[in-house]
Specification:
27% strand; C-N_Hydrolase_sf; alpha/beta; Nit1/2_C-N_Hydrolase; Nitrilase/N-carbamoyl-D-aminoacid amidohydrolase; C-N_Hydrolase; six-stranded mixed beta sheet; single chain
Length: 285
């Protein structure tokens, strides 16, 4: 039987951000209100929640420091609504005018920034049948893994394209004891249709963590379209919440059961069975 003391409600949002800071903030405020009304203690917003540029270089023009007015509005929103916010993919001003950082900001229910994770894996890809992306041309990659204790459990922070690199998630779980993995994203339509769900479920299964994946959706501009499928997945790999309409703006809600994490890990103790890197020898040796 589930212990209510070990259960906490979370929400994940889906939206179509555009190149209008005020409009996006209005949408996020509405989603926060829906999440608090549902009893959620954490709301996860997708990558680029506050802004998606319509033209090359537009994101650089609005990039700000973490103490700038854009993020201050979201911190105030968290404080006034008494909810934690996962703000995935904020355009943080970089070391020069030609670069920014794609930064996942975790804000607590007092409006304080608790952690910042700068996206490690940058999306430099010629999407089959789609556009060419070169995130590294204007983004500085991060170097550090980030975990943070919260009322929702021990959170591991990632962003979008990180999802394709399982070593990061393995480290968050086995070296840093993450219980819940946050994956805010703006996946392309082509790659999302092919790989989004299966990658998310794989990360949950192999780490025995909850995975919360907040997605951008739909057409942001003439040049950009995202694959929407906002999901919450449990440590057994089961989808426990999913927005029924991939193109709609809204939230999904689920209860994170910390005792279920323990139960899965006890019954299948992969942390005890894992062999350290370097354990195996190649056949040529």
């Amino acid at each position: 039987m589930t212990s209510m003391a070990n259960t906490v409600r979370v929400a994940a949002a889906q939206m179509t951000s555009i190149n209008d800071l005020a409009s996006n903030f209005h949408t996020c405020s509405r989603l926060v209100k829906e999440a608090t009304s549902a009893g959620a203690k954490l709301l996860c917003l997708p990558e680029n929640f506050s802004f998606v540029g319509a033209r090359d270089g537009e994101s650089l023009t609005i990039a700000e420091s973490l103490d700038g007015p854009i993020l201050k509005r979201y911190c105030s929103l968290a404080r006034e609504s008494k909810i934690w916010l996962s703000l995935g993919g904020f355009q943080e001003k970089g070391p020069d005018d030609a670069h920014l950082c794609n930064t996942h900001v975790l804000v607590d229910d007092h409006g304080n920034i608790r952690s910042t994770y700068r996206k490690i894996h940058l999306f430099d890809v010629d999407v089959p049948g789609g556009a060419v992306y070169k995130e590294s041309s204007f983004t500085i990659a991060g170097n550090d893994m980030v975990v943070e204790d919260s009322p929702i459990g021990r959170l591991g922070l990632t962003v979008c394209y990180d999802l394709r690199f399982p070593d990061l998630y393995q480290q968050l779980r086995f070296q840093h004891e993450a219980q819940v993995l946050l994956v805010p994203a703006a996946f392309t339509k082509t790659t999302g249709e092919a790989h989004w769900e299966i990658l998310l479920r794989a990360r949950a299964i192999e780490t025995q963590c909850y995975v919360i994946a907040a997605a951008q959706t739909g057409r942001h501009s003439e040049k950009r379209e995202s694959y929407g499928d906002t999901l919450i997945i449990d440590p057994w790999g089961s989808i426990v919440a999913r927005l029924p309409d991939r193109l709609s703006t809204g939230i999904v809600v689920a209860d994170i059961d910390l005792s279920f994490i323990d139960a899965v890990r006890t019954k299948m103790p992969i942390s005890e069975h894992r062999k350290p890197f370097g354990y195996w020898k190649s056949a040529s040796q």
